[in-house]
Specification:
Heat Shock Protein 90, 7 strands, Single alpha-helices involved in coiled-coils or other helix-helix interfaces, single chain, alpha+beta
């Protein structure tokens, strides 16, 4: 039998890790506050000399180092994974002195460095508040809750009948020493014990926001990293497509054309000796030419179908649906044509999804719906097959998700076991 969350929370590891985070926050914040205020004060005061700039640069560099420690502490105790800011960017120079000057200039231009320095100052008052609140709440809660176990210590060693709530100079005092008062004290402690995890989580939520907002990468840095990752996906996809085209040409049309050239050479040699055999060989070669042309047409359609360029996404998807082994209905409602690159990605996305339906779904019917929603092109492919599809790494759908993600697209698969399967893809319109 599992305890309710409210009863389980005081004993969970998360609660005690957050409590430890608040306790460690005071000494850590004190070190950071003293460092930040001292370095900034000295550096600002020394700006009238040449020493002010390197001192302030050291303050910024040290603040970045302290920020790395804080990110590690938040990751270990709060479970917050914050991406570090990008490296300090400076203009590259040839000699070491100029490289150092460029690095110092990059420190001063880096918004992340100044946010780290701001964190060393702003975190201190909040850390004091969190330390005092957490320590007071936890010690009071557990002391009162466990009072029935230790109240005998007071008369035995402190010469008092119990916890004193009131006392004056006239000797009037009130102690918690009767059975009823002890039970009420224990019940009050239990309420505080049950409430303390939620209070601590509320306090550490502010810590999470401070770490994420001041010590993490900026939105620009995150966007740059995302674009670099997307560029890698695009490059890998393009390389894979080129390898596929090369393989199809080598194993298909090229091999057939080589065989055709050999057959025509043999036919040429037999032309005078055995005209009838040469005619048969030429006739066979004619059939091989037709097959080679068909393979080249299929390959060209796989690179970029002419119907997509000439007539747009609607007719192209209708032609694609006609070649599917499962009956497919299409509904395309677009007020205009999106950018050619987006059209191509949409076409090949639907093409691969229909191939998956033909090979793996055991579906009886399928439906393709394409529409524009504000500034997004929305594709939805549905089938009544066996379901169970997913975007597990290494699968075809995972590759589609990466390809769409590289252009700020979205790819969602809803495929419970037993079906039906609905795949929704969104692409930026970019008309």
């Amino acid at each position: 039998m599992t305890l309710p969350t409210a009863l389980r929370a005081p004993l969970e590891g998360r609660t005690w890790r957050e409590f430890l985070y608040l306790l460690l926050g005071l000494p850590v914040a004190t070190v950071m506050f003293v460092y930040g205020v001292t370095m900034v004060s000295v550096g600002a005061g020394m700006l009238v000399t040449f020493l002010g700039v390197p001192i302030l640069a050291a303050a910024l560099a040290g603040a970045r180092g302290l920020g790395a420690v804080e990110r590690a502490r938040a990751r270990a105790l709060l479970g917050v994974r914050v991406a570090p800011p990008g490296p300090v960017a400076g203009r590259r120079r040839d000699d070491g002195r100029n490289r150092l000057a460029a690095w110092v200039g990059g420190l001063f231009k880096s918004g992340a460095s100044w946010r780290h320095l701001l964190y060393t100052v702003l975190y201190f008052p909040w850390a004091v508040f969190g330390f005092v609140l957490a320590l007071t709440l936890f010690t009071t809660a557990w002391t009162l809750f466990l009072y029935p176990l230790w109240y005998w210590v007071l008369p035995a060693y402190a010469h008092q009948p119990g916890i004193q709530l009131y006392g004056d100079s006239d000797g009037v005092a009130f102690y918690l020493d009767t059975p009823f008062e002890i039970v009420v004290t224990c019940a009050t402690g239990l309420l505080l014990v049950l409430a303390s995890p939620w209070v601590v989580r509320g306090v550490t939520q502010v810590d999470r926001l401070m770490v994420t907002g001041l010590l993490g990468a900026s939105r620009l840095d995150e966007r740059v990293a995302e674009l670099e990752e997307d560029r890698g996906v695009v490059v890998d996809t393009a390389a894979a497509d080129l390898r596929r085209i090369e393989r199809d040409l080598h194993d298909g049309a090229q091999a057939r054309l080589v065989a055709l050239a050999m057959d025509l050479g043999l036919a040429k040699e037999k032309l005078l000796e055995d005209p009838e055999a040469a005619a048969r060989m030429v006739d066979e070669a004619h059939g091989e030419v037709k097959l080679a042309l068909q393979e080249l047409r299929d390959l060209a359609r796989g690179i970029h179908p002419a119907i997509l360029t000439d007539r747009g996404l609607g007719p192209a998807l209708s032609a694609l649906a006609a070649r599917c082994t499962v009956p497919v209905t299409t509904e395309v409602d677009l007020p205009a044509r999106p950018a050619p690159a987006i059209e191509g990605i949409a076409y090949f996305t639907v093409s691969e999804l229909l191939q998956n339906i033909s090979k793996h779904s055991a579906a009886r019917t399928a439906h393709v719906d394409v529409r524009r929603s504000e500034n997004r092109l929305v594709l939805q492919v549905w089938d009544d097959g066996r379901g169970g599809a997913g975007t597990a790494k290494g699968g075809g759908l995972a590759g589609l998700a990466e390809r769409l993600g590289s252009v700020d697209g979205v790819f969602v698969v809803d495929s419970p076991p037993g079906g039906p399967t609905t795949v929704t893809a969104e692409l930026p319109w970019r008309g």
